[in-house]
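Request: Not sure, any thoughts?
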Amino acid sequence: MLSALNAPGCRRHPWLLLLPKEEREGGGGSGGGVGQRQSQQRAGGGSSMPRAGCKSAGSWSKGTGGPEPGQISLVVFIGLLFTRFWFFSILYSIWWYLDQDKPRQGGRCSKALQSWVMWKHMRDYFPISLVKTAELDPSRNYLAGFHPQGIMAPGAFVNLCTESTGFSSLFPGIRPHLIMLPFWFRVPFFREYLMMGGLVTSDKESIAHILNRKGGGNLAAIIIGGAQEALNARPGAYTLLLRNRKGFIKLALLHGAALVPMFSFGENDLFDQVENSPGSWLRWIQDKLQKTTSFSFPLFHGRGIFQYSFGFIPYRQPITTVATAHLWVLQWGSPLQCRRP
């Protein structure tokens, strides 16, 4: 990496260090590689990346399936219309219309909700921990690249959307916002819960709003691999999908934000997944569904309540999320500078 600093163009554009060697030498084309880390437990297969491109930030962070609270919220909203309390749904619809742009304008974070005791129980179940390796200057804004997605990304949620692991104590003055698929902010009632947790939509305008806030102290976290990466999530395998997903680097450059890498060890160890290697009939169906619906449909299982052989409760495996690890981050200036955090 140190020798790469002297590569042509790096001193002026250090973000090139984040691109594959062939792209750096060729001026940063649209191709790219897939970083992969495998353990001795289980080898992860290759990946077939769809040409999602970087046309919208929504292609960088997509959900893996419908959260159960969202389904409940929708049923309650519709159900109230057929009761004597129908006017609650009507009044909320008016509020919803007037407030429709709020998820793209930073949301409305609630420290009270983020400090609920139940989040501490959720943290202790796995357990989940957050490790800081460098300070973040509260006078600047940051764009974090989170990996891996896993099946449900509990590490990202617990560390960035709750105070159970002490994010505000580790990084004083930094307000985290986790990026989520815009669809879920159209679900009545559930959208309020999401925004109170600090989640915002994955639209470019939404991310730009956070990175352009005056005074600094804002962090937007993007799960880079998104829904497609969930299809590769299995114990011991870490497959990073990065090709055609480098638009977040351009956003950081455009808005003068620093890039913060975040890696969540153990995120893929929570569920077993049915074998779906690239080229198999199952993976072909999953890829087609993902391209059509923007959601991925991994066939997974974990443990049960009273037995450990089968169920949909995640295994109790430790999750350790490391923020600002010793990788290169962006420093905006004239010319741009590379530094280690």
